[in-house]
Amino acid sequence: MKLLLIDAGNTRIKWAVVGSDAALGAWEAADGAPHAQLDAMAASWRAAGVTRVLVSNVAGPEVRARIAAALPDGIEVEWFASTPERAGLQNGYLNPGQLGCDRFAAAIGARALAPGEDVIVATCGTATTVDAVTKDGRFIGGMILPGLVLMATSLARNTAQLPQVQPGSAPPPVFGDNTDDAIVSGILSAQAGAIERACSEHGARACIVSGGAAPYIAPALKLPHRVVDNIVLVGLHAAAIA
Ligand SMILES: Nc1ncnc2c1ncn2[C@@H]1O[C@H](COP(=O)(O)OP(=O)(O)O)[C@@H](O)[C@H]1O
Ligand SMILES: CC(C)(COP(=O)(O)O)[C@@H](O)C(=O)NCCC(=O)O
Ligand SMILES: [K+]
């Protein structure tokens, strides 16, 4: 049996194909692309011969319908949802279904990668989410902030003098001596500062950083952390085999 895992975020759709007795995160194939490239992704899914799919979608009903139409015929489909409990993780949201299902999956993934630890999981995508999981397996809640590109774009769109910036591979000095560096420092400090604050408040023994903006944010962190390529897919895998 082959399993397809899909993480549809607000910017990109990420996916992985995994065999039935594969180790956690041991993908046979994996990729990701913007929503517009769904047809090309669907061709890869058909070629992989998958029999079951677990989909996390936070990109709304239109993307859901497009994914549903693109899935191979006859495949068993589960739309992953935030529930009060899954794979040994308790969901501490007041209304468990309100929690973004990608965050619930990421928390399951974080628990699988750091079992028995108080862990912070930061998923840095369109939005950045920074969530706390306790060592005894409870998602207690978290933070939602605009992602790196949203922060940069909001400054460029709403001011007369500020340009659209592109973060580089290394963070600039904290105190930028030119406009571009000052903006990049500001938004990286907001992202990294939120993660550091979460780790400090939670007394976290482990910090996992993931998502499309993780390569830019992780180098700005002044605490031990682990960059994981796609923690949502890892969590979906853990949920599927639990
Ligand atoms: N070249 C880049 N520079 C800065 N950030 C980037 C770049 N490429 C991707 N990103 C970040 O990654 C995000 C997309 O990552 P992803 O984890 O797939 O998001 P989502 O799950 O919300 O679709 C973008 O919104 C942006 O924040
Ligand atoms: C916070 C999010 C927008 C993150 O989406 P992403 O950046 O992964 O595209 C998504 O998890 C969501 O829509 N959450 C619902 C609200 C909540 O989690 O409380
Ligand atoms: K996110």
UniProtKB/TrEMBL annotation:
- Please name the Gene3D superfamilies in this protein's record: 3.30.420.40
Q: Which reaction does it catalyse?
A: (R)-pantothenate + ATP = (R)-4'-phosphopantothenate + ADP + H(+)
Q: Does the keyword RNA-binding apply?
A: no
Q: In what pathway does it function?
A: Cofactor biosynthesis; coenzyme A biosynthesis; CoA from (R)-pantothenate: step 1/5
Instruction: State where the protein is found.
Output: Cytoplasm
Binding residues for substrate = Y93, G100, C101, D102, R103, T179
SUPFAM superfamilies attached to this UniProt entry: Actin-like ATPase domain
The protein's enzyme class: transferase
Q: Which residues bind ATP?
A: D7, A8, G9, N10, T11, R12, I13, K14, T126
Cite the InterPro entries for this sequence. ATPase_NBD, Type_III_PanK
For this UniProt record, the keywords arranged alphabetically read as follows: ATP-binding, Coenzyme A biosynthesis, Cytoplasm, Kinase, Nucleotide-binding, Potassium, Transferase
What's the record's note on cofactor binding? Answer: A monovalent cation. Ammonium or potassium.
Query: What is said about its interaction partners and assembly?
Result: Homodimer.
Q: Which HAMAP family match?
A: Pantothen_kinase_3 (MF_01274)
Question: What is stated as this protein's family in its record?
Answer: Belongs to the type III pantothenate kinase family.
Protein name per Swiss-Prot or TrEMBL: Type III pantothenate kinase
This chain's source organism reads: Massilia phyllostachyos
Q: Which gene encodes it?
A: coaX
